[in-house]
Amino acid sequence: MAEMRITNLVDYSCENQIATLILNRPERLNAFSDDLVRHLADALRRFDLDPEAQVAVICGNGRAFSSGADVHQRQLPKREEFEQHGGPQGWGANSGDLLTRSVNWKPVIAAPHGYAMGLALGNDGARQLLRYTAGEENRFFFENWELAQIVLGVLLTGLLIFGVESRMLAGFSGAMLILTIFEHLKITPEMAWLGRSFDFLPWTAESLSRDQFWKLHGAYSAIEIVKMLLAVVIAGFLFQMRPRRAKQRVQIKAVDDTHHRHVNG
DSSP states of 90-145 as a string? Predict the structure, then answer.
């Protein structure tokens, strides 16, 4: 028997700017039927337009977050219905649209427990999770690589001042060091924050954060080019200043094959 739409399949509450959406079909381990998908879409729409809510957390009632799609229900449609809807889901119950039809693009967090299978994650969710993981690793690499550059920059500047005794080259090295510190303190933290803000957005979605990120990325790339040019200049001067060995003339002595004696040339 089909579930009545009046059934409260998703509980919605908001406290301290956090909206909590609870999947309420515990007798089926919160398996996603068409009605549950529609109710969740309505709750997400309500969250998106709720001025008091800034972040949403999706939970599951009972002993599982969700066992995935309701396979039993999705075996019931006739072939004609399957072809009309483009799949086993009913009209307006496409789970792939749950997180793509937003206006304000607020963050949505899943709090799974027990089973979290199949449709509960979905291909889009898996791709977004992988993109977020790769982004975190990339951000970790850049932050630590900049720290390594700062340490190397301090050592190089000290060497050029006290070892090579070249104020000009020390100035170039100091400029590279200042640019790296500026990147590490100003640009990279802002890019990391902006990156996290749209990691879970679809690529086709418009985002001011993404636009601002690419502007900062352009500035970061320009600074890296300047640092590279300064490094080339320093390397060129150091190559010219390297100590050169004086050429030594080698006197070759001729050999008298007849008497096996050396004869001075």
Answer: -TT--GGGTTTS-SS---EEE---S-B-GGGTHHHHHHHHHHHHHHHHHHHHHHHH
